[in-house]
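Side project, low priority. Logging it here so it doesn't get lost.
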Amino acid sequence: MTPIVFVHGFLGGSRQWMGQTEALGGFNVIALDLPGFGKNAHLDALDSIARFAEWALGELSARGIEQFTLIGHSMGGMVVQEMIARAPQRIASLVLYGTGSIGVLPGRFETIGTSKRRVSTDGTVATARRISATWFLEREKAPAYEDCAVIAEKCSLQSMLTGLDAMEGWSGSDSLSNIETKTLVIWGDQDRTYPWSQTQQLWQSIPDANLAVIPGCAHAAHLEKPGLFNMILRDFSAA
């Protein structure tokens, strides 16, 4: 069975995918921690989405994983778009979740420039907790909020600023029509980071892409409505 690879977003980590790892029993699930984040928070973050993609492809090769289903969330969705542009033959199917094709994030809860200024003035812990809250419809009251905030707090100032710079300088719009791999786009209908316009662009620009909209969720639908998210993912992965 084709392995499933998860790539987390900004301030995320592999631990956020535990519910999917458990739900996808029978599949070989690999959840990466990008340099500067999660279990690799001790490493320096990379300065471009392209370099994150190259690192991820190299890491998977080092683990002996040559072909896989690829799932990217938020900034991780940018990374996986770069991965498929570089190695389309390695990716059996693609899931773009809570993400878009441009890094400037129009419609985001705040501009990337504002996030960079605030992390420099407020500090990393306050920034980690504040941004993590925006991922959930109920913000800090969401059951999964605290765990996400703890993961985000591991990030250094360098990782936060470099990650924001990497996103701000990236665009994958011109490559969408070249994606021939079976693709699913997933979006929570109350996402505060990626508005519908970006989701719609992915869905309509990638040939034959499928779309799943999860109602009553913000940016972390896989944690807010894991049962529905996992059912959609299992159905797509098994097809």
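Brief comment: The mean pLDDT is 96.
Revisit when time allows.
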